[in-house]
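FW: tagging you since you asked about this chain on Friday. Here's the raw sequence from the shared folder, copied in full. Didn't touch anything.
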Amino acid sequence: MQIDMPEMNGFSRRRVLRAASLLSAGAALPFYNEFAMAQDATQRLQGSRAPMPPDAVRIGSNENPLGPCVEACEAIAKIAKYGGRYSPHNEGADFIKIVSEVEGVKPDFISPYAGSSDPLHRSVLAFASPTKGLVMADPGYESGAGTAKFAGIKVTRVPLMKGTYAHDVKAMIAADPNAGIYYICNPNNPTGSITKREDIEWLLANKNKDSIVLLDEAYIHFSEEMPGSDLVAKEKDVVVLRTFSKAFGMAGIRCGMAMGRPDLLAKLRPYGAGMLPITGLVAGTASYKSKTLVAERRAINARVRNDVFEFLDKKSIKYIPSVSNKFMMEAGRPGAELTRALAQEKVFIGRTWPVWPTMVRVSIGTQDDMNKFKTALSKVLS
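HL: got it, structure written out here
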């Protein structure tokens, strides 16, 4: 029996099926999430699918080496024996309840996902189309652009502002006044730079009425900036993405969410289905209940990051100041060359972006990780 599929957001039936295949393929696609892209880059670097050495310094995927907090690990241990059931004790409702309390948004303004990559791709498919494109920063987190390209959606890249490396919101609207999505990653990936609240509010006030601002706050907890959850509570045309992969150290456990008006969140649902892992839900709930975790981890990350910046300053190596857990550094040569040289020292950093071919992204690891990075960098530069 053939089921007729209505057109969705300007997509033909063929496009809808192609979009569905995108989300079902998941991490098999090289643009699906940060790990997939980093893994793809590493495989090209090594020329094979060989695993990294066990003593490798892994500072290329913006992971948090601190891992889940104690409370999250305890919650996982307790729920593991119930893994035969999709949701044995209403874990999803518990997660939404604590997020609602902490973020100050209504429960029906929250949709849990297995990380933030899933709702990012859904948002591109839901709000952009062959006639209403995606506008983003250059350089910026390119995963959503990969989805857009896959689905035949126009992507417009706008350079970051000189000096501050913030999103140039006025240039973004000028570049495509009729876009479906204006994508702001804040702090930005890869630069770790901030786009101020007044600029985000200006964008919301001046965009076309049929578009949304997609505010990706994967790294917001590393900064002191005000998050965008209040914009959701005010029912603005905004979808806020969060993940527990970064500050909360749960990249391998998979938990995240989208926040927005119920009518906006409803548009994400047709582009995929599936249950969240109960381990991720209970770990996320436990992490959000902690009153001190974010501040403690923000301080640890800042201390290690600033130590690296002091080292780079002494070496007269240029970098972009960051408030996040990664930064962009000038290689003084094609970035891939420096990446390969450091890999020979068992230090694996991040990738380059086409717009800045001589800059590389470096994630913040432990103090020991970064000490080894400094030693290896000194060696290869000498």
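FW: The radius of gyration is 20 Å.
HL: agreed, and The domain at 70-289 is CATH 3.40.640.10 (Aspartate Aminotransferase; domain 2).
FW: great, closing this out.
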